[in-house]
Design a protein that fits this description.
- The complex is a heterodimer of chains A (about 525) and B (about 350).
- Chain A has about 525 residues and is an alpha+beta fold.
- Chain A has 3 domains: about 1-145, DNA ligase i, domain 1; about 205-405, 2-Layer Sandwich (D-amino Acid Aminotransferase, Chain A, domain 1); about 410-530, Nucleic acid-binding proteins (OB fold (Dihydrolipoamide Acetyltransferase, E2P), Beta Barrel), CATH 2.40.50.140.
- In chain A, strands 4, 5, 6, 7, 8, 9 and 10 form a 7-stranded mixed beta sheet that branches. In chain A, strands 14, 15, 16, 17, 18, 19 and 22 form a 7-stranded antiparallel beta sheet that branches.
- The longest helix of chain A has 18 residues, at about 330-345.
- Chain B is about 20% helix and about 25% strand.
- Chain B has helices spanning about 55-60, 145-160, 175-185, 195-205, 260-265, 280-290, 305-310, 325-330, and strands at about 5, 10-15, 20, 30, 45-50, 65-70, 75, 80-85, 95-100, 105, 130-135, 165-170, 190-195, 215, 230-235, 250-255, 270-275, 295-300, 315-320.
- Chain B has a 7-stranded mixed beta sheet with strand order 7-8-9-10-11-18-19. A 6-stranded mixed beta sheet of chain B has the order 1-2-3-4-5-6, with helices on one face. A 6-stranded parallel beta sheet of chain B has the order 14-13-15-12-16-17.
- The chains are: A alpha+beta (about 525), B alpha/beta (about 350).
């Protein structure tokens, strides 16, 4: 793991893209094949799953370090990262293990077959012979959250450079459904595996938030407008008599959505559709919170299928008759998409493939009213797409824009503060906010993001001086500061004292101009629930 | 009445009517060392060690009434014995021992156990009551020997030199800067210094401490002279217009906070070197044990956690609120001193 740890140190100590690519390229040209393969996997979101739960890990680490769990916990709150905390509290290594990266990963892959005692012995043995950075990486691997500040794109560029092959070809080869256990470096990178081609998705085209006036976009008739449906962006592939569904996070989710499983029965081979995985029933989309009940579940129950059925809301057609049509203008793709969807709808009994309707308009002035209907239709706003646009790779400006609705807002009083994680460890960044219920504050949401580092520094200094009480890592503070909280949705919740749960809450503004008495009330929150819940 | 009490002005000995490192102005202040959070403005009389005196004079100005004392020398005030003992933190730093009728207290200020080759090495003092810092009072903080870290710093300098870059290394002007200077391999290239650091260097050299040759950064120096060399500067000078002339540069930061990945990334340094003038976790524990004291008073740092741990170990440990080490808990966001006149000579 020595070489991999050295690579990690180099990547971790620079923010410069060139240096990262150079370090990676250097590593790729020297490492052994299995290590190269695993490095590609780790840097393309194919990390091994968590193989030891963190509670056991804490117990074992505390035992080896000779400290009580509470002290390990306190340290963790300061460090902000469990893998790092453990790497630091353990005594220095007694011996040196010199095995390569793949040796450790393959060992970790065996963990599920071991008893708890055997697993413990393996982990403790590893800790005894690895130095700090290696331990940290090992801990990240066993807890299943290895991350480093290198995008898949940069990794691909470095590998392309080291292997002297064109970057675009390589990017396409690395997509899709492969694991280091089932392939070799040669097969993946140097030759191409036809089985992998079958399920391989295209990179998604992503839009930026609209930054100009509508009329500055040009003539309205050059634009197609649709709702931005509130589900999960997905890509449906029918090839070789099989159906594959990919999420935008490049995860193969076919098994999670049985609704799509027989799409190959009514879609021809060589069809790839870009769309939205959307909870939908009785002709109407359901809120994202309904879909959320399915995310992260391994097994899909009958009840889930009844309560949160999904459709695929089609936006675009990327492959038609086995041909990549991304370079054709969008209106042409749209016509083909309409043809494909209507043919499918005729064959299908209950329609699980829908086409995203376009908004009819002749003047830009008509659009704000349409956008205003978004929240009640469970859409996030509007999408504006130039009719002659090609389907591009990644997030690009110019031809596609998202025009999201403004968030709901409420003014709330800060009640509790907790230190952040990672880069913001040691700063108070995680806050709980409350609204007034008569004379008392009722906590109703947490929020972490939205402030600058400078503001977090100031609020951290304030929290230290105004702590009323401590509960482990959490401090209750003097009610004083008012923040404007923005959120995307609100729903009823029996788990929360306030009776509501917010979607994507964040701090929009620090309202230093507002005294705490002028923050909103629980009645205001209930009225919002009534209207938008 | 206890021999030492803890007041809103600082640690107080009523019998002798003196304060130790007070944070509000008092008549008579016994000072452990010259850092600004321990040696503050506005006291009427100061007492510090002989080797702490010159820097305190520089920082507090010509008007300040500063008396000095040798390590180990006894001073009796109203029947109370006071003496200063090396704390190993920076040049001239001391633990202050207070004895009355056989009861011994030690206020240790800031300290570290490792001999850094410059500061008078830490000396353990037996006592009944020990006042300790806890800046790094968590088990995640464990230092490596300074030779290892200094070798890393010199390697980093060589790498930057090979790439034609300036190495810019940040450190507190008093203490850390001189410790680093002493460890830099000046056969690699020229060592340039920020004005605030060079002012302190001059004082320390005059006291007879050996530092390698350094060159003060001034406007007269052609910026083409810097590449391949190292600039030792204050944290506050980073990102200031003054620092532009060193581009392209690699930024290094030497501090105990560099232990944590989050702090390294937040500091925005290219390299973080874990080097501290405070005791690490094992250091704090062994220092406390060696005093033989049963009563431990924990000041600045992870006070709550550390005193909790000490109680578990059977000590009678108390957590104290002080105004020391404002930077301690605020950890790596410490922006440290800013200098409006970085190239200024003493005026």
């Amino acid at each position: 793991m020595k070489h991999f740890a050295e690579l990690f140190r180099q990547l971790d100590t620079t923010t410069k893209t060139n240096k990262k690519v150079a370090a990676l390229a250097d590593y790729f040209s020297q490492a052994e094949d299995r290590d190269r393969l695993w490095t590609i996997a780790l840097l393309s979101h194919r990390r091994p799953r968590r193989s030891v739960n963190s509670k056991l890990l804490r117990a074992w680490a505390g035992e080896l370090a000779g400290i009580d769990i509470w002290l390990l916990e306190e340290s963790y709150h300061v460090v902000g990262d469990l893998a790092e905390t453990i790497a630091l509290v353990l005594p220095p290594p007694e011996e040196r293990h010199d095995e390569p990266l793949h040796f450790w990963i393959e060992k970790i892959q065996q963990f599920p077959k071991l008893t708890e005692e055997e697993r413990k012995a393996e982990v403790v043995n590893a800790w005894r012979g690895l130095e700090k950075t290696e331990r940290y990486l090992f801990n990240k691997l066993i807890t299943g959250n290895f991350r480093v500040g290198v995008s898949q794109k940069l990794m691909t560029r470095a590998l392309a450079r080291a292997m002297e092959i064109p970057e675009d070809d390589l990017a396409h080869r690395l997509m899709g459904n492969w694991t280091p256990d089932e392939t070799t470096f040669d097969q993946l990178v140097l030759s191409d595996n036809p089985q992998a081609q079958l399920s391989r998705p295209y990179p998604f085209y992503l839009a930026y938030q609209l930054e100009q006036e509508l009329k500055d976009l040009g003539a309205p008739e050059e634009w197609q407008v649709e709702h931005k449906w509130d589900g999960i962006r997905g890509q449906l592939i029918v090839r070789g008599g099989e159906t594959f569904v990919w999420s935008r996070g490049e995860e193969l989710v076919t098994d999670k959505y049985p609704e799509y499983q027989n799409f190959h029965d009514f879609l021809p081979n060589g069809t790839v559709i870009d769309g939205e995985i959307l909870a939908f029933t009785e002709g109407k989309p359901l809120g994202f919170n309904i879909l959320q009940t399915r995310i992260g579940r391994k097994k899909v129950s009958k009840k889930t299928l009844q309560e949160a059925p999904v459709v695929l809301m089609a936006y675009d057609l990327l492959e038609y008759g086995g041909e990549d049509i991304r370079e054709r203008p969008m209106n042409e793709r749209r016509k083909l998409l309409e043809k494909v969807v209507s043919a499918a709808t005729e064959m299908e009994n209950e329609s699980r493939l829908l086409i995203s309707p376009t908004v009819q308009f002749t003047d830009w002035d008509e659009l704000p009213a349409e956008r205003a209907t978004a929240r009640e239709r469970h859409s996030e706003g509007l999408m504006l797409k130039r009719k002659n646009s090609t389907y591009k790779v990644g997030r690009k400006k110019g031809d596609w824009w998202k025009w999201k609705i403004d968030p709901l807002t409420i003014d709330a009083v800060m009640m509790y503060a907790q230190r952040g994680h990672g880069r913001r460890a040691n700063l108070y960044t995680d806050f709980t906010f409350g609204v007034w219920d008569g004379e008392t504050l009722v906590p109703f949401t947490k929020a972490y993001s939205g402030m600058t580092d400078k503001e977090f520094n100031r609020i951290t200094a304030w929290v230290r001086k105004n702590t009323v009480d401590r509960f482990g890592p959490v401090r209750s503070v003097k009610p004083h500061h008012v923040f404007e909280i923005g959120f995307e949705g609100i729903q009823k919740s029996s788990r929360h004292k306030s009776g509501v749960a917010l979607r994507f809450p964040r701090m929009l503004r620090w309202r230093e101009d507002k005294p705490k008495e002028e923050a909103n009330t629980i009645e205001d929150l209930r009225a919002m629930l009534e209207q938008y819940g | 009445m206890a021999l030492l009490t803890f007041t809103d002005r600082g640690i107080y000995c009523e019998r002798a009517d003196v304060y130790i490192d007070p944070w509000k102005p008092v008549r008579r202040a016994l000072i452990t060392h010259g850092h600004a959070d321990h040696s503050r403005w506005g006291n009427e009389y100061y007492l510090a060690t002989n080797s702490a005196g010159p820097v305190m004079r520089h920082r507090l100005g010509p008007e300040a009434k500063i008396q000095t004392i040798a390590y180990g020398e006894k001073l009796k005030i109203n029947g109370v014995d006071f003496s200063y003992h090396p704390a190993g933190h920076i040049v001239g730093s001391a633990q202050i021992r207070v004895e009355y009728k056989g009861e011994v207290w030690v206020a240790s200020g800031d300290y570290k156990l490792e001999d850094d080759g410059l500061s008078e090495p830490f000396e353990s003092v037996k006592c009944h009551h020990f006042i300790t810092e806890s800046t790094f009072g968590l088990p995640v903080y464990r230092w490596e020997p300074q030779e290892v870290i200094l070798a890393d710093i010199n390697d980093w300098w060589r790498e930057n030199q090979a790439e034609g870059k300036v190495s810019m290394l940040t450190a507190y002007a008093l203490g850390k800067a001189q410790r680093l200077l002493q460890g830099l391999d000046h056969s690699i290239g020229t060592i340039y210094t920020h004005g605030a650091i060079e002012n302190t260097n001059e004082i320390i050299r005059r006291q007879g401490f050996k530092l390698p040759p350094t060159v003060r950064v001034t406007r007269e120096i052609d910026k083409k002279a810097y590449p391949g060399n190292i600039v030792v500067t204050t944290p506050g000078s980073v990102g200031q217009p003054w620092a532009k002339k060193f581009n392209p540069l690699s930024l290094g930061s030497a501090s105990g906070w560099m232990t944590l990945r989050g702090a390294r990334r937040r500091r925005g340094a290219d390299r973080g070197f874990v080097l501290s003038d405070h005791a690490d976790w094992p250091g704090l524990l062994s220092a406390i044990e060696a005093t033989g004291a049963d009563n431990i008073y924990v000041t600045h740092g992870y006070t709550g956690i550390f005193s909790n741990y000490l109680r578990e170990q059977g000590y009678n440990a108390v957590e104290l609120e002080t105004d020391y080490g404002e930077e301690a808990e605020a950890a790596a966001e410490a922006t440290a001193e800013t200098d409006s006149n970085p190239e200024g000579t003493e005026s």
